Amino acid sequence: MDRYVGMAGTAHALGSMVMGDDPHHSVVDSQGRVHGMRGLWVGDGSVLPRASRVNPALSIYALGLRLGAHLAEAVA
Question: Is 70 tagged catalytic?
Answer without folding.
Answer: no
